[in-house]
Write a structure and sequence with these properties.
The complex is a heterodimer of chains A (194) and B (182). Chain A folds into 3 domains: 61 residues; 49 residues; 51 residues. Chain A is built from 6 helices and 4 strands, in the order ααααβββαβα. With 194 residues, chain A is an alpha+beta fold. In chain A, strands 1, 2, 3 and 4 form a 4-stranded antiparallel β-sheet that branches. Chain A starts with a helix and ends with a helix. Chain B has 2 domains: 85 residues, Rna Polymerase Sigma Factor, Chain: A (Orthogonal Bundle), CATH 1.10.1740; 64 residues, Arc Repressor Mutant, subunit A (Orthogonal Bundle). Chain B is built from 8 helices and no strands. In chain B, helix 1 crosses helix 2 and helix 3 crosses helix 4. Classes of the chains: A alpha+beta (194), B mainly alpha (182). At the A-B interface, helix 3 of A face helix 2, helix 3, helix 5, helix 6 and helix 8 of B.
Chain lengths: 194, 182
């Protein structure tokens, strides 16, 4: 009958956790204690056996996974049979129809939305612009470029340029800055800027 | 389609091996199938070799300090190639393998013979254990999972309880070994 300490020593041996001192103790017991040696040999046999058992279980799981993956791949392949070919054609027609509907409504939504923005921009043009300052203010503003309104946003703080020339200079000056984003502003913030 | 990096795949192999195997199947099975079928094998051989390759990768990924020294694709090709060469030799078919991929000579440990009496004694006794004991012993001794993770996976309140249970299961296994071969 082994002591609890000897069992711990064997556990540590098989998990590779023996210290230098424990290794020596282990070797001494292995050579001098027949019961200890028999237990080590038995545990080695058990570990080898469980290894084979575990690998066999894993192989069964892999066979299942192989079937699952094959089934997944098959489901992506286009059908070639007569009946299923017809089914495939129907699926294509339904898909194309759905895409067409989404495109049609998307286009109408975009058209209506941009028309509204352009109408408001035109109204703003009619009101007139504030005089362009000699340098860009840090507090905010806007610039009109090719009928599209832009602000320049740098690391979370809006810095808005008033003129085409100023915009070009600003972009040139900040060319290396990754955070520079030129974006179309919204009508709301244009009003705020004024 | 974005490809999972080798490092991520190895990590996944340790945490969710089923998912990792699915990805490996999708990315590398065709390569192994091509290697085998162009070298005297058939689809069933390819499936067998690929599964054995996955087991080698799984076992090695559980070894402490295991790192890949080449791309996982090269590793899989090389291990599959070695396994197939051994099978060809055992079938007395000694023709050389035509290679289609770069390979490195990766040593594959000889798997223990499942028909060896000492091994069979253990595997037979494992079949006689309850499901829970089979799981805890396989997770600890084969998958080399630590007691904290085993406790979490099998629903024990802490690692010490799992450790006690593992000890009891090991004792049960030993007693079943004696009974089954008495």
């Amino acid at each position: 009958m082994l002591s609890e300490e000897q069992h711990i020593l064997i556990d540590k041996f098989f998990s590779g956790e023996l210290t230098a001192e424990e290794t020596q103790q282990f070797k001494d017991l292995l050579n001098g204690d027949a019961a200890f040696r028999a237990e080590v040999e038995l545990q080695q046999q058990v570990i080898n056996g469980i290894g084979v058992f575990g690998a066999a279980q894993l192989k069964t799981e892999l066979q299942d996974i192989h079937k699952e993956v094959q089934a997944d791949l098959q489901s992506y392949k286009p059908s070639t049979g007569g009946g299923s070919g017809l089914l495939s054609a129907v699926k294509w027609l339904v898909t194309l129809g759905a895409l067409g509907a989404v495109g049609y409504y998307g286009y109408n939504y975009y058209k209506a939305h941009t028309q509204e923005i352009h109408q408001q921009l035109e109204q703003l043009d009619q009101v007139g612009q504030p005089p362009a300052p000699s340098s860009a203010p840090s507090g905010g503003g806007y610039v009109k470029r090719d009928t599209v309104w832009h602000t320049i946003k740098v690391t979370g703080t809006d810095t808005v340029i008033y003129g085409e020339k100023e915009l070009e200079e600003y972009v040139k000056k900040n060319k290396g800055a990754k955070q520079v984003i030129i974006r179309r502003d919204t009508i709301t913030s244009l009003h705020t800027a004024e | 389609m974005a490809h999972t990096t080798d490092h991520t795949l190895l990590q996944l192999l340790r945490t969710d091996y089923r998912q990792a195997f699915k990805l490996l199947y999708k990315e590398h099975y065709k390569m192994v199938e091509y290697l085998i079928t162009k070298n005297s094998g058939n689809s069933a051989d390819a499936e067998d070799v690929f599964q054995e390759t996955m087991i080698v990768l799984f076992n090695q990924s559980r070894e402490e300090g295991f790192t890949l020294t080449c791309a996982i694709k090269t590793y899989i090709y090389s291990v599959a190639r070695n396994i197939w060469l051994k099978k060809l030799r055992s079938r007395k078919n000694l023709r050389a393998i035509d290679d289609y991929e770069k390979y490195e000579n990766i040593a594959v440990d000889e798997p223990a013979d499942s028909n060896e009496p000492a091994i069979k004694q253990v595997t037979d006794a494992m079949q006689l254990l309850g499901e829970n004991c089979r799981k805890i012993l396989t997770l600890f001794y084969y998958q080399k999972m630590n007691m904290v993770d085993i406790a979490a996976q099998l629903g024990y309140t802490n690692a010490d309880n799992a450790k006690t249970q593992k000890y009891k299961c090991l004792q049960q296994l030993k007693s079943k070994m004696t009974v089954s071969h008495a």
